[in-house]
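Appendix C reproduces, verbatim, an entry submitted by the partner laboratory led by Prof. M.T., so that reviewers can inspect both the input and the predicted structure.
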Amino acid sequence: MRRVLLSALTSGLLMMPAVAHAQSKDDVARADALFNAAKALTDAGQYTDACAKYAESKRLAPGIGVTLYLADCYEHIGRTASAWTEFRSAEGLAREKGDKRADVARDHAQALESKLVRLTIVVAPTVPQSGLQILRDGLPVTQEELGLAVPVDPGDHAVVVSAPGHASKTLTTHVDPENPSATVRIDSLEELPAAAVPGPATAPPGPPSPPPATLPNEPAPPVAVDRGRTRRYVGLGIGGAGAVGLVVGSVFGVLAKVKFDQSNSVQCNASTDRCYSPGFPMRKDAEHAATTSDVGFALGGVLLAAGATVYFTAPKAVPAVGITVAPAVVASGGGALLQATF
């Protein structure tokens, strides 16, 4: 079967530019260079380094050929779930284009199914659901995946759970052919204690300071009249809200990109925007996150500009002017001292 796959991969090289028409010329050129470098590493038996370059080449210019090469590379280094996912993705792309390599990809995916190891994440009802976030090996876990035995690569896996007002928790597990399934149960999250308010720091007692020397009738320092202080505070508040909007837009933009890439790896076609289960719910999540990102950027930009306008157009402080006349002794006798403060 590996000879059949090698033949299919070789024929796929001739079609790489055709499947990358939606990308820019620079992306296609970079993808081609990465693919050639990965192919040389594969020929030298350096599959671990080759897989990373195949993956980046596919990201820049997705296609049937590079997807099959990436799947075969993952299979060589024992990442069975990643290989199975890429073979399924290649099959979907090939079916849409009527490409004969669809059967080759399907056969390899079916051959790997018996070797897959799986991880199940279960969340107890007592765990707070508001704002709950679960990451498996750094990638978000959707609500649809909870309770399902999801194929994962053999090895160690980390599940990080967090929720507002609670301490994050990290749970680890291990799966391999001898232990083909594992379940991570999230039973509770520890609430964070109320933040203690520190008291004012007190300096150790020292020698008393001598009273300051003052002149007779010393005038009090002038007090500046700041008519725009409140307005500048309002401008800072509006600008701060705008900055929060930009941060929200950035976070949801990154989340949309992650969801979109995940959907492409499980039965979604980036060029035709068609998805099959289980890629469809991931693509929907990506669309919702992208919409939220656009709203956050738009609202944040408007508020930031409004805050800057309010702040910089506020009236400046006007210093007070004071004049004081005090008696003084001079060489010729009595006199007066005139002092002005600005």
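Residues 10-21 have pLDDT under 50 and may be disordered. Additional entries are available on request from the coordinating office.
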